[in-house]
Amino acid sequence: MLVYGDTLKYSPMYIGYIILKEFQRKKSDKISLMDITKALRDANMNSHRQFILGLSFLFFVGIIDFKEDYIWVIS
Questions:
Q1: Rounded to the nearest 5 degrees, what angle is found at the Cα of 48, between the Cα atoms of 9 and 56?
Q2: Is residue 71 a contact partner of residue 33, using CB atoms and an 8 Å limit?
Q3: For residue range 23-55, what is the model confidence (pLDDT) as tens digits?
Q4: Buried b (16+ CB within 10 A) or exposed e, 1-18
Q5: Is 34 helix (H, G, I), strand (E, B) or coil?
Q6: Buried (b) or exposed (e) across 32-66, using 16+ Cβ within 10 A?
């Protein structure tokens, strides 16, 4: 994968990494959508597109699952 400038910061893989770091920080298997948006805001990612890309990437890889307003890490 060729990366130029800041494009890696906005890739779905990096956004997924930030989301998974929030799971580690909370030390929990579930996390609310609001906690994820706060973590992305703290990383200067304010776009809803980045939020959707990160969650979609983790879901399609099989790392997370959605249940109600929580996101769960699949063990």
A1: 75
A2: yes
A3: 999 998 999 999 999 999 999 888 888 889 999
A4: eeeeeeeeeebbebbbeb
A5: helix
A6: eeebbeebbeebebeeeebbebbbebbeeeebbee
* Nearest residue to 73 (alpha-carbon basis) of 37, 27, 14: 27
Q: Residue 25, Cβ neighbours under 10 Å: how many?
A: 11
- Residue 74's CB is within 10 A of a number of other CB atoms, namely 11
Please state, rounded to an integer, the average pLDDT across all residues of the chain.
88
| Mean local confidence (pLDDT), 1-19 | 79
Q: How far apart are CA 60 and CA 64, in angstroms?
A: 8
Q: How many CA atoms lie within 13 A of 10 on its CB side?
A: 10
Distance CA 68, CA 18 (A): 21
